[in-house]
Amino acid sequence: MRFGIFYEHQLPRPWEPDSEQRLYADALEQVEIADRVGFDYVWEVEHHFLEEYSHSAAPEVFLAAASQRTRNIRLGHGIVQVPPPVNHPARVAERVATLDLVSGGRVDFGTGEASSAAELGGFGVDRERKRAMWQDSLDAITRMFVEEPFAGWHSPYLRMPPRNVIPKTVQKPHPPLWVACSRRETIHLAARNGIGALSFAFVHPEDAGKWSRDYYRLLESEECVPAGFAVNANLAIVLPMMCHEDPAEARRRGALGAAFFAYALAHYYGPSKHTPGHNSIWGNFTKDGPKMGAQGTDPLAGALGSPQQLIDLITRYEAAGVDQMIFVLQAGPNRHDHICESLELFGKKVLPAFTEGREEREREKSSRLAPAIEAALSRRSPARRLSQPYVIDEDAELSRLTHRPPPTPADLLAATRKRARLMGRHLLSRLVATRSDEDLTRWLTPGRQRLLFTLMARSFQPDKAFGFQGTLEFRLQPRSTWTIAIRGPRARAFPGPARTPSLSLTLPAADLLRILAGTANPAALLVSGRLKITGDVTLASRVAEMFGGPSPY
Amino acid sequence: MRFGIFYEHQLPRPWEPDSEQRLYADALEQVEIADRVGFDYVWEVEHHFLEEYSHSAAPEVFLAAASQRTRNIRLGHGIVQVPPPVNHPARVAERVATLDLVSGGRVDFGTGEASSAAELGGFGVDRERKRAMWQDSLDAITRMFVEEPFAGWHSPYLRMPPRNVIPKTVQKPHPPLWVACSRRETIHLAARNGIGALSFAFVHPEDAGKWSRDYYRLLESEECVPAGFAVNANLAIVLPMMCHEDPAEARRRGALGAAFFAYALAHYYGPSKHTPGHNSIWGNFTKDGPKMGAQGTDPLAGALGSPQQLIDLITRYEAAGVDQMIFVLQAGPNRHDHICESLELFGKKVLPAFTEGREEREREKSSRLAPAIEAALSRRSPARRLSQPYVIDEDAELSRLTHRPPPTPADLLAATRKRARLMGRHLLSRLVATRSDEDLTRWLTPGRQRLLFTLMARSFQPDKAFGFQGTLEFRLQPRSTWTIAIRGPRARAFPGPARTPSLSLTLPAADLLRILAGTANPAALLVSGRLKITGDVTLASRVAEMFGGPSPY
Known about the structure:
Chain A is of the alpha/beta class. Chain A has 21 helices and 17 strands. In chain A, helix 1 links the parallel strand 1 and strand 2. Chains A, B: Residues 1-324 form the Luciferase-like domain.
């Protein structure tokens, strides 16, 4: 088991003129302590425009500063946003390599796509293409690390002629790769790409075993084709943490920060509207907060406690096969001195329980995985060598870059479908925006229900179901019930209850319309008690996007 | 007078596995010394793919590392490449602000466009639009610093909806702005934009007075409309430096590095062909070097000397009105221990000669300029406030971003003209590539000479002449002479010599064709003795682009 600390650089309003400077100075001091007491990693996010939630917009700068204040701690990008409209892949390769140089090879390179509307809309990243951008950029960037020269790129997302991208990393072939897993299914993606899974999905220790088994089973299977030129087999999970000898004091010091973290996350990643420079998420939180806090701390509360409680909790995660625990201490209004005390105490009383024999265990794991990793790497297409030296010709390169081929029929069809889907969503959202609950219930006549569920079934997106098979039952209040049965790539709707539903949702008819329009968040409806669920809870959060609605990820 | 040191992170081949790591570690140690002995600035370039010449691809990372090893020295981006295809303007604002936070407000923000074929072709930046991109991005970035929220952008180069770009800088309204002046005329652009001029053009002390007078005259005139929300009135020049009590030793230690610097610069910014991952610039330099070294050190040699020689030289620049001397020590094969010794000696023996009364002089300068600066700032369009709160709507933002208006007739005409110009250049370069000097001389019959000079005159680009008026005489060997007279925006060609030419070029007819085709560099022809010049030397380097040929900048 390895240990990390995690930074969003949260800054609840109101802000003082020196708030951001203090935030950064405190964080650097905390990282210095973490390094001294034996933490293995500091992870920092890259987020843009997410006021209050994350003021960490240039992690390459913060981590570079941290590199000169520390000796051993690894510097983790958790994560870099790799879609080219945000960061040109060559710029990513350059900054990762430069950080690796100034830190003497201490970089871990986490990657991701971004998923808030604030970021995607701000940089013009199409939500439906961002996963493809991630995969494409990761391939290009890892080749920039190892190819001399990088042999060039020609994809729908990046065009670049051959160049020697310098400097190169200290770690060879490149720093360990990770991917952010905002939803747990992405852990499968990580395994198939042979890279570390940074799970932000607050997995319970009881569920962690399943995810760890899935991860290693896939990573050792033939489905694993590494995204990089080395495999990083590690599963890390992120949890809020605060440590104090008195468990009640640990909770007092950490609970509000953890609850604000979850609240602000829901603000930016749910359907709430954000008004730049204008919202006060902290203000709203203190109004809504107590309720959220009480409900919200359950899965998170585990890491707010005494050293012995933390040892017990971590032991359960270790037994479940988790390789790294990453702790969020800097969250919401959590105090710098409390964070420093927690880190010191953790280093003194908790860490030593997990270090004995650790390197031996890690060596064993490496040997066990070695044959599978070797086999996986042989499946990855190798670094390219140009068949003949490439001579730079600016004019020719520019005209190749600016010339775009005409769209194919498939492109046009996809664009038309997308426009139709957006239009449907738009009409639905106008409908729900202008009518009361009563109006909407009346509007949803039996005939319209049939139309709605038939359209939902027709719009079923198998790739968003992650292999799910079974029946979904919708108990619409006041009085109608519909079922959608999913088998293979097809879904079929029929009126009435299901015999053994995989998931049953009970909710006002109006709220179903709101979920499909993307203006209501199932998680928020669940917290407020308007939505009741029997069955697989995580499935519920995917209902909208399974049927062509917007994804919160 | 203030003092800076300057980093390209040069690394001549051959490379060892740890060469880049050592290069960076040494540089950090040098910066620590510079800070301790009283240097005011460390400047770092941002260059991409320029193997051997510059391994400084992520200066935000290096400067952030330096921030934690130093106390007072200012951290200068010299420069950030601001065309959006290289760095998204929001990413630039973010990284500059973050560096300002971790350094406690020590950032100077130099800006530029990039101009090597390796970089422009690599990122797909159109040379003819990069100046416009620079101006546009600078306006957007400075607004991101001061507007809360940034009110959005809609230009041919950047589209972005309103967002609050965070974090904000420590220095208010933002760090001092500069622009790279690879050619001396850009000093006028700096003045008109109310920003510092970082002159890389190796100005002689005798010429510096004129440039300084021009700079301050324009900056204090009504032509100055600040690019930022504060004015930075400073002129800095960059020179190679090495200091030793024995002037001959200083020269021995520094001359080769300075010569390599100039040689590698000419390689990437001249018409030489670069083959990524393949060239050895150092190898070619050691073959061509001695000659270059001898000729090349003239304007540079001044800052290789004893403390007293440096004091004398700097005094001349100070008298000419230069505000900052920026020294290149890390160049070519220059040794780390020599650089450290130079910095120590400079701090001990040279710096003290310029610090007495310096703050008083700077205060006087500030008061003298204050009224003009106030007037200039009142001409800048102010920070914007949204008339009503803007609510983020990802779908609407994405469709606005991806919808592009059809090209206007003016766009189409410009594109056609550009294509014709490129085609002409292409035909010319094919001609010169396949024929010997004798063939070319024969090919250039009197009739074709008339056609060529008439076309040159017609292609005259007044904006590339920077207000030049006068006559250019071309003495083509073996025996014909042509003159082009420039008056206002027009040029006229006629056979025969000029009465009082502003510039007279004597060169083989074949070489004129090569210059116009962009395959020969006037500077290189000058060094090799094939081209002889009477008159304004800097005008000669602009001849090709004044008549529609390629610009080396």
